[in-house]
Amino acid sequence: MRKNAATGKNPTRDPSKLRAFAESAARQAGFDAFGVASPDQLPSVSAKLAAFLEYGRHGTMDWMKETAERRAHPRALWPEVRSVILLGMNYGPETDPLATLGHKDRATISVYARNRDYHDVIKGRLKEIAGRLAARSGADVKVFVDTAPVMEKPLAAAAGLGWQGKHTNLVSRDFGSWLFLGAIFTTAELEVDRHEADSCGSCRACLDICPTDAFPAPYQLDARRCISYLTIEHKGPIPREFRKPMGNRIYGCDDCLAVCPWNKFAQSANEAKLKARDDLNAPALDHLLALDDAGFRSLFSGSPIKRIGRDRFVRNALIAAGNSGIDALAPRCEALLEDPEPVVRGAAIWALTNLRPDNAVKLARRAAERENDPDVKTEWKHVMGAAG
Q: How far apart are CA 196 and CA 184, in angstroms?
């Protein structure tokens, strides 16, 4: 048996010992949940993914369709993989994540985005664990944090971290809805864990609370109706039917996660970089509507929010402003009627129509004729049509 060049020790190939070593390394790196799955433990995932795509429920996320074959099975992504290590890091909130929904002058940001980008927090630690495992076992390793076609949630269920609830997200007995997931693929053989059984029972809390009715059935999600998709992935104007239900949710939506009864066992995050920043717990809409590109980048440096860009973000803030009923926000909205970006101008029209309908009609009659963007022109014409 050859010694490992890096350690000078003989590599360990005992599956039980390797699992124990990897778990110890994960705990030292700050992970709260650990499990191991076989890459062959996902027999039904391919069919479910195919149905999801066939119904068009992925919306404009074309990358899901393009990577479907690799996404459907770990071995399609990496044929040599023999074990998949799933790790979870708790990001539980310290306060009720839905409390800000009642503050109309404020914005509600999804819990996961109230501080550092979890990809940056987790990936380096995964690499550290993977490197130690490679040195101990002599095996090859690859790490993934939501940046490759990996079905993390089904794999996490197979590895015993929890189960996929009726809202399709992972539910943990120990951490409720609040786990960030990362995966280490390896050619080493590790002792696997038992699949976690579904414990949702007859509960429908997550399905019933959804503001946009995004669940066609339990365990099924239509992303096209999901506020998280609409505020983050969707690039154009928000479809009119979803604007009112959005309320003041400007980045993501936690409703289905927050009402899960299993959250009674949840704990607040230990990792300081995942604890909410004070200025992102309930930021003022007035401030967000005034952001230019430089201000947006400065405020959200290191945040996952930065990736959607200033224009989509301000679009979302304008929808929240239009839902607020706060007349003092109208001047901000009116100023954005002259914004260079069509998606911002269109959202500003809708917001102003809700806050000051009479003024919106006056503006519409002269602005609709000089507007070149078809989506924005449609918004103006809708204002005039609604006014008779």
A: 19
Question: Do 79 and 214 fall within a single domain?
Answer: yes
- 60, 234 Cβ separation under 8 angstroms: yes
pLDDT in tens, 141-185: 999 998 778 889 999 999 999 999 999 999 999 999 999 999 999
pTM (global) more than 0.85: yes
Q: How many domains does the chain have?
A: 2
Residue 311: active-site member = no
C-alpha gyration radius of the chain: 23
**171 and 38 housed in the same domain:** yes
Residue 107 is assigned to a structural domain of this protein: no
Strands 249-251, 108-109: pairing is parallel
Full residue range of the structural domain in which residue 367 is found: 284-388
Tokens describing residue 338: 């002259």
**For residue 88, what are its two tokens?**
């979870």
Q: What is the distance between the alpha carbons of residues 285 and 206, in angstroms, rounded to a whole number?
A: 27
Task: Give the other-Cβ count within 10 Å of 35's Cβ.
Answer: 25
Q: Determine the pLDDT at residue 1.
A: 36
Q: Which of 146, 198, 286, 373 is catalytic?
A: 146
Residue 221 CA, distance from chain mean position:
14
Question: Do the Cβ atoms of 195 and 41 come closer than 8 Å?
Answer: yes
Assess contact for 265 and 177: CB atoms under 8 A: no
Gap between the Cα atoms of 347 and 247, Å rounded: 14
